[in-house]
Amino acid sequence: MVRRQVAVLAAVGGNNSALAAKRATATIPIVFTSSADPVQVGLVASLSHPGGNVTGVSWFDTELGPKQLQLLSELVPNVTVAVLMVNPQSPEIAHQRETVQQAARALGWQLHVIVASSVSEIDAAFTAAKRQGANALMISSDPFLYTRRRQIVALAAHHAIPTISASREWVVAGGLISYGNSIPDSYRRAGLQTGRLLRGVKPTDLPVDRVTKFELAINLTTAKALGLIVSDRLLVAADEVIE
Fold first, then answer.
1. How far apart are CA 57 and CA 36, in angstroms?
2. Are 221 and 199 in contact (CB under 8 A)?
3. Cα–Cα distance, 111 to 123 (Å, whole number)
């Protein structure tokens, strides 16, 4: 794409694709979508003044771990051991692990981190989770894990492990609960950023768009299968309830 001298590179498949695009060119404008802090992972100099040829949209899913665990603890009150599933190829793992570990300790939970970057590793991760006595699973925001959500949700159902994730698509697939940004909305925002660049705005003058609206989704069918009762408070707070 760089050799073809495209007008804009829309690297919206996660941080790794955006970082690869940045390595490939310092002149062609790049638009990213990122679930992490784009400053921390090295995409931009700052949110308000990106610098260079890169800008985009960030929704900081890695900062939502404490809120997600809080919601999960309200829905699943008997959690003692939880696991965080991550893709080791994701650049924001260290920060996410730290914030989730702190939140788990505050709840009195043991937290184990399990890694999965292939189909076979996902199967092995669930075997490890059961061996560790896990009774809750948090799935990190990652493009690869997102593409395997049906496999992960099916395994969670088979092992009767409640799950929480960052996007409603997981709940639509059969996951228990999600809290995070709307993925379609983030892509829409990336499209708006791309349009501005095509109209001549320079990336360095286009602040990173930070998403501030988040959605809560709950799957009542999955909750019933797990023997869980969803409180009225959660039902009222939910943006989407799947029955």
1. 10
2. no
3. 19
For residue 20, what are its two tokens?
């690869």
Measured distance CA(55)–CA(45) in Å, rounded:
10
Domains delineated in the chain: 9-59+182-210 (3.40.50.2300), 62-180+215-242 (3.40.50.2300)
d(CA 100, CA 9): 33
Give dist(CA 14, CA 93) in Å, integer.
13
List phi, psi (to 5°) of 209.
-80, 120
The SS3 assignment for 35 reads coil
Q: What's the sign of the alpha-carbon dihedral 224, 226, 111, 43?
A: negative
**CA 138, CA 19: separation in Å to the nearest integer?**
25
- pLDDT tens digits for 103-120? 999 999 999 999 999 999
Bridge partners (DSSP) listed for residue 241: 218
- Model confidence, pTM: 0.84
CB 82 within 8 A of CB 105: no
pLDDT tens digits along 141-195: 888 999 999 999 999 999 999 999 999 999 999 999 999 988 888 889 999 999 9
Name residue 53's amino acid. N
Distance CA 58, CA 196 (A): 17
